[in-house]
């Protein structure tokens, strides 16, 4: 074949940050004032300036037909990379070669005008995304059908519900036919049914041999859609490769979130106290995030100071807002002083992606020894191992994803 | 079989793009041409939006020039400015109100266009020059409506234009050049120095006093009291040439053009356009970074 469709060599993008300045633009009067001051003081600078490399020596290639998922924490440089690739900002250093037409979708409904009707906005938005009038006319009916807005074509979009607005916007973008499609986070909008439809459409697009670059925080969407991954951290490439490898690296090395929680010893030593809590995979390795649908375990280390009868350790899982989801207690045990290790294993109840609080309580015979309601968290990543599991229909249907047994009987 | 050895398929290399620092400059005009469709769509959008609330939209483009016309004619009468030949004062002022109203709206719209479309600039690539230029085009529609009003006025006075009206498009073009030049320059400055938004209304207001709307250029060039230096400064205003040209075309040469001043106005208009575009090109790479 013809080699890579996109090749990025030593790409850097530098921004100059000005301190003491709330806005990014300058006011002429400040510039003049500083020039005037500079006449008297030899040095003149507008506040302090600091350089910031949003992208730092980034190199990678994309083969035709690849669906590349770009992942990384906030501020890793994902959006800057997409902006450079879609020519919105110019690189500071380096070189990008692109062999094909690029359509970028950094926001749905770019250029939509509220006063214009749905029909008018389809043409306008299509033109902004790089379609010719003939292309739009040819696809018009398909776009309208996909967006399900037939009846409202001649209504100004300011009267649309937000759902209709987003559907129409995505429909236009989905019918672009460039060789390369760049997509940023657009799936974060719309209801679950429409999100599935969008994902389906994007799979279809990439199935047709087009190259897709995709940025999203929804790991399940990235995993489903992409075959290759690019992991960015602080503007540098940490890893490229198959999407599975890259996602694993991301989940095991996610800086900034904890997986081992160490509790401070209480000021007044009681009967016992909890020392540490670790979130682990079934292999006993620490996990900063557990994949939705995967098995995990929580290990709690406890220091017992005096002999206790009927010692119980409880582990609660609650939503971030504090709504208790479930609580598990160890069997009441008589213990002598020493360090103890408790292992709570997950049991096939699948939590939806997101963050949860882990609540730890130590007690004996109904009396509380120590209660830690707000010290540890469990991160469930939306990278799903269940996506192809027929028992899970929808990963956003609730906190618990397991289905109840359902029977259907004919009555008459 | 041989095709395989000829390198990548034609279709691929046709769209090859190389992005590196400064690369946008090299294919500037080619890009602008490639995006001409978007230019049309943006102008079309602005026209649609302008006239969407039909009654207000159209009424506004009729009422505003009429009011300006009335007030300016009154002021001219009050100060007893010269009316050449047998031309009714209202037509003399009307022929100047047309280009002035066009210039003032086109210039302000163009100057604010980049800020108004900042959501586009940060989300999609296209040659940025499209934004201010297409907003000038929209104002041409207003100008067309004003021409209708002027035609009615001329008919009411039984005033028939002669062959000179055929040259009017040239002066419309000159007005477009002047409005675009100034608009593009201020639009680019506006992105970086946001206080230019206060300067725009001032330029428009000030311009009305120094342009021959209420009076005519004869009052200036023919006066003994006005020193030559001021006459020269007066001619630097690009709208002097445009307005003199409109009067010459519409009023059948009753007001002759003062050639040196006219040529100077044209030169300034062209200089503004060239200077505006070159400053725009120099700064547009950074628009998305600062807007």
- Counting structural domains of chain B, the number is 1
Count of discrete alpha- or pi-helical segments spanning 4 or more residues of chain A = 8
Give the helix level of chain B as a range of percent. over 70%
- Stated plainly, the CATH topology of the largest domain in chain A is called Rossmann fold
Strand content of chain A: 35-45%
Reported for the largest beta sheet of chain A, the result is: 6 strands, mixed
* Number of discrete helical segments of chain B: 15
In CATH's first tier, which class of the largest domain in chain A applies? Alpha Beta
**C-alpha Rg of chain A (nearest Å):** 27 Å
The name of the CATH architecture of the largest domain in chain A is 3-Layer(aba) Sandwich
What is the straight-line distance between the termini of chain A? 63 Å
Encode the helix/strand succession of chain B as letters.
HEHHHHHHHHHHHHHH
Strand arrangement within the widest β-sheet of chain A reads 5-6-7-3-8-9
Provide the residue-averaged pLDDT of chain A: 81
Work out the number of β strands of chain A: 19
Description:
The complex is a heterodimer of chains A (412) and B (291). Helix content of chain A is 23%, strand content 36%. With 412 residues, chain A is an alpha/beta fold. Chain A has 2 domains: 6-30 and 49-252, Rossmann fold (3-Layer(aba) Sandwich), CATH 3.40.50.300; 260-384, abc- transporter (atp binding component) like domain (Coagulation Factor XIII, Chain A, domain 1, Distorted Sandwich), CATH 2.70.50. In chain A, the strands form 4 sheets. A 6-stranded mixed sheet of chain A has the order 5-6-7-3-8-9, sandwiched between helices. In chain A, helix 6 links the parallel strand 6 (180-184) and strand 7. In chain A, helix 3 (118-128) packs across helix 5 (162-174) and helix 4 (133-147) crosses helix 5. Chain A is globular, with a radius of gyration of 27 Å. Mean pLDDT of chain A is 81; it is low at 41-46. By secondary structure, chain B is mainly α. Chain B is globular, with a radius of gyration of 22 Å. Chain B has helices at residues 10-14, 23-26, 28-34, 36-50, 54-78, 89-116, 118-121, 130-157, 168-192, 196-210, 217-221, 228-236, 238-250, 259-284, 287-290; one strand spanning 16-19. Chain B has one domain (37-290). Chain B starts with 9 loop residues before the first helix and ends with a helix. The model of chain B is unreliable at 1-13 (pLDDT under 50). The chains are: A alpha/beta (412), B mainly alpha (291). Chains A and B meet through helix 1, helix 2, strand 4 and helix 3 of A and strand 1, helix 4, helix 7 and helix 15 of B.
